Amino acid sequence: MAISFKVNGHPVTLDVPSDMPLLWALRDVLDLKGTKFGCGIGRCGACTVHLDGVARRSCRTEVSAAAGHDVVTIEGLSADGTHPLQQVWREMDVPQCGYCQAGQLMSAAALLARNADPTDEQIDAAMNGNLCRCGTYLRIHAGVRAAARRIASDGGREGAAAPAGRVEEGR
Predict the structure, then answer these.
(1) In angstroms, how far is CA 135 from the centroid of its own chain?
(2) What is the pTM of this model?
(3) What is the per-residue pLDDT for 162?
(4) How far apart are CA 16 and CA 45, in angstroms?
(5) Residue 123 and residue 150: Cα distance in Å, rounded?
(6) DSSP β-ladder status, 54-57 and 70-72
(7) So what's the pLDDT on residue 79?
(8) For range 88-102, the mean pLDDT
(9) Residue 41 burial (C-beta neighbours within 10 Å; 0-12, 13-18, 19+)
(10) What is the largest CA-CA distance in the chain?
């Protein structure tokens, strides 16, 4: 079945089963390896992407749900790594092993797009579904806070997060 949608601003048409997880369409068909497979049940957050601006678990989202919509992966957050979150992540050495970080960044970008000045509680709630086996939660939290300050001081112009909303599990 041909399914057409945009990925990181580029139109794609895939001839894949409609119930294929979006994760596998991105990784195996489109060769976008930044989105990671973690648990396969939508609980760890490693596979988080944006679907029309909403953070979604791509392992639980069927590719047919993307038909006619816009998907943004970690590769599309910023082509040159200048998104404030990416900058802060590097400067603060936020990741340890790094495996979960694409999902962490995508969840954080969704939060900051809808709330440029989140409270500590809002950061914790937004990031709660993203697991980090290395336990860098304090650095992740500090990174989100620092990126929010950077976006505020920049006026949201350079590399600001794309519009996004809540995290939803794919159904």
Answers:
(1) 19
(2) 0.88
(3) 40
(4) 24
(5) 16
(6) unpaired
(7) 84
(8) 93
(9) exposed
(10) 46
Residue found by looking up tokens 């992740």 in the block: 140
Tokens of 141: 């939290």
Joined together, the tokens standing for residue 123 give 């950061």
* Stated length of the chain: 171
At 71, which amino acid appears? V
pLDDT of residue 161: 39
**Residue 70 vs residues 5, 56, 95: alpha-carbon distances, Å:** 6, 12, 28
Pick from 171, 45, 44: nearest CA to 105: 45
Which one is predicted more confidently, 35 or 159?
35
How many Å apart are CA 151 and CA 144, to the nearest integer? Answer: 10
Helix residue ranges per DSSP H, the chain: 22-24, 74-77, 84-91, 101-114, 120-127, 137-154
168 DSSP 8-state letter: B
CA distance 51 to 7: 9
Q: Identify the residue whose tokens are 């400067």.
A: 91
The residues facing 63 across adjacent strands are: none
Q: Position of tokens 């440029």?
A: 116
User: In this model, does residue 171 exceed pLDDT 70?
Assistant: no
How far is residue 87 CA from its own chain's centroid?
Answer: 15
